Request: fold
Amino acid sequence: MCLLAAIIMLATGDTSPGKRLEGMAFVIYWLGCFAFAALALLTAVLDARALRREARAEQRELLENALDGIGAQKGQSSKLKAQKNLQPPDSDAPSPS
Reply:
């Protein structure tokens, strides 16, 4: 919205209505245009920072979920290995002498 106001003020300032401005009205008009442009720039910067923060949080969450999934898989495989080691040997297999 601020960007639109700045563009409209820029366009009218360069045309015949803007050429009638003199003295303090000229300065105030262009300061207003500059203020709207600065507000638009500030809004864009704050929005970019918010998007970057959200993306970083999502990446962190995805990484944590992936690491938790890997840890859960390792835990299951080590439990299976432990259970296989605790089972008695088959009676058909020759016993070591």
Remarks:
- The chain has a mean pLDDT of 81.
- Residues 2-82 form one domain.
- The chain has one domain: 2-82.
- The longest helix spans residues 24-86.
